[in-house]
Write a structure and sequence with these properties.
By secondary structure, this protein is mainly beta. It is built from 1 helix and 33 strands.
Amino acid sequence: NQTFDWKWFYNNGNDFDDDYAIICPIFLPFHGLNEYHLDVDYFRDCHASSKPLVLREDSVCACKDVTATCSTTCSYSGCNIYYDITVTICNNFYQKICLTSLTPLFDNQIGNGIYMSSSDFSTLNIDPNGCGVFHIQLVVSELDTAMAMFRLRDRNCTDCELIFGIDLMEPLTNLNVGCTHRVYSAYTNQNGDLSDISAFYYDFRLDLSGVTSPSVVAVWSEPSAIIDYTLNGTNLEGIGVYYGDPDQQDLICIHALLCYNGQLCLWTYCIYVNNIPRRVIPYINRSAGNEKSGRGKEITEDASEPKLMPNPATGDVSIVGTSNEVEEVLVMDMNGRKMATFDKTDHFNVAALPSGIYIVRVRTSSVTDGDTSEVPQKQVTYLKLVKK
């Protein structure tokens, strides 16, 4: 019998009114221009669906009643992954469409380690209630995005565009490689700076010592997602997110597809989400008038970890709280898309970025003090930055 009043806000958590205890902001990443719906299951048998959110460029109208469906298979040779995609475009509009160009959506590139090796696309003239088919071949040496986004443009008949995405991660999860390795011990820890009531963020570190000159082809998790990762010496470090109740005994498996000795090898580490050490993050239960913190193994904040000041920020940002030299600063959106990089500095400027919430990856110099504690000092830290 509850009523949901759905509101969408673009990159701005400050629009929520804190006077209302029932408002629960959820910050979600989007993979491109498309139509999105949010489905929520709550309590035992209750379900709610949001109003649609349509993202598109204002200057070009979307092709009305035109759909794209993709069928994808993948294989591998050496350390490269090959995707064969069949794209079917169907026109349910009353007018003919004339698709003349196919381009990647973002800056004319799919990803840093992804390129389109071939395509048989040519002009598609599709009558009402008709369909057209073309094929795309992708070669991947490093999968730095879960979706390959493309734009089809009709400049002749209806002056519209169709944006569609190809899921690169799902076919990869079914790829059988000859080499597999099970990891039984790894460092995981809740990221208290990013976690909130809607999403549980966690840092992870896999020890790859003993492997000669590895390179990372892809990293993903089941369930939910890996936001970012980096190969730091012999450690594979990154941040993942789990959308669910972190107090449940749900198994999270981190998969790393590595290339070494000229072949692919799949490394897997699994841990129950309620066994990941927690930061003590108080939250207010306004209806009860008290404070509570999440259950599970709790640890206190480390005062020596890097922090961002000021935060929120409008321009200049400083990294404080660490005595190690800052090697690199990477600013990403909440989907892990790289927005800006700064090298060898503990000061950077975000004035050129749109207002919103960002993840900042801070890489500091190696620790050489001989620390042998159970949880080593981190060399890579993920922080949240609010840009006004």
